[in-house]
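tl;dr need the bound structure. longer version: we got a ligand (aspartic acid) that a collaborator sent over and nobodys looked at where it sits. i said id run it. heres the input, straight from their email, havent touched it
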Amino acid sequence: MSATRKSKKKSTPEAVYRFPHRHLLGIEGLSAEEIELILDLADSYVEQNRQPNKKSDVLRGRTLINLFFEDSTRTRTSFELAGKRLGADVINMSVSTSSIKKGETLMDTAMTLNAMHPDVLCVRHGDSGAVKLLSEKVNCAVVNGGDGTHEHPTQALLDAQTIRRRKGKIAGLTVAICGDILHSRVARSNMHLLSTMGARVRLVAPPTLLPAAVDRYGVEVFNNIKDGIAGCDIVMMLRLQQERMKGMFVPSIREYFHFFGLTAEKLAFAKPDALVMHPGPMNRGVEIDSELADDIDRSLIREQVEMGVAVRMACFDLLTRDNPGNEP
Ligand code: ASP
Ligand code: CP
């Protein structure tokens, strides 16, 4: 599929009908075919991003606004870069210096920005469901950059692209998602995506860091990391989301690292060619051993960041086409 598009009218008709969504709010509800469409298109953007001239005019004349109510390094900068590489005008709204500080509500802020006719609004918010609520008030496409403990769809897509490029497939692989599952939107989006694409998903965490209804997720659950990663193809580590915790969820960081932190010794229980992933930001020595995180033969962490830009370019491209589903 071509990564360049001269005008809205020249969209690939096939892609138009295969991605009939106005927003990207979550992975839940996307079909395997739609996920594959995003990943295939992202592959062409990986190539574009590796050229000296990284720019195209797919989004020329379009406006993208980043609205982040929670801190971010990777997601916010890659949304910005993705928009710029496609030729869009990109505005980063700083919540800390905005009129939200004067008491303006999320909905009034959304409606104010909407009046400026953006084409895409990328939003991160601390409350699960807040991005969907906002999407109901605006005329443009909304991309969820992470909402509370609910979903982080572009993260799961970039993880999938990283896995697919390194392992050649997703279906049939065994993926262990380890750590703070309870508070992780990355875990939730990945569970949806990996199950939809035919991977076997395992969750590995102490009982205190697992959701109450975990048996309804249709995944295997382990409280011991060595058993949980035994025979796995991919080991995905998660940060302890201290900012979402009220009270103590682990006895101590030292003990947590001892039992649940990924080390080369524990990774030896996985397949010999198993690869390690982490969405970032990492807390070295808490959920992952520092040397292992930097081991380029085992760790995909830097590749995940690279894929993040390409996947977000693919999402913007598809969401701004003349889709039947994305008409205002
Ligand atoms: N950056 C990811 C998120 O925002 C993971 C994390 O913060 O631990 O969900
Ligand atoms: N992985 C991720 O979402 O990172 P940031 O929180 O830095 O955006």
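gonna send this back to them w/ a short note. The pocket of phosphoric acid mono(formamide)ester (ligand 2) is lined by residues 72-76, 146, 155, 279-281 (CB under 6 Å).
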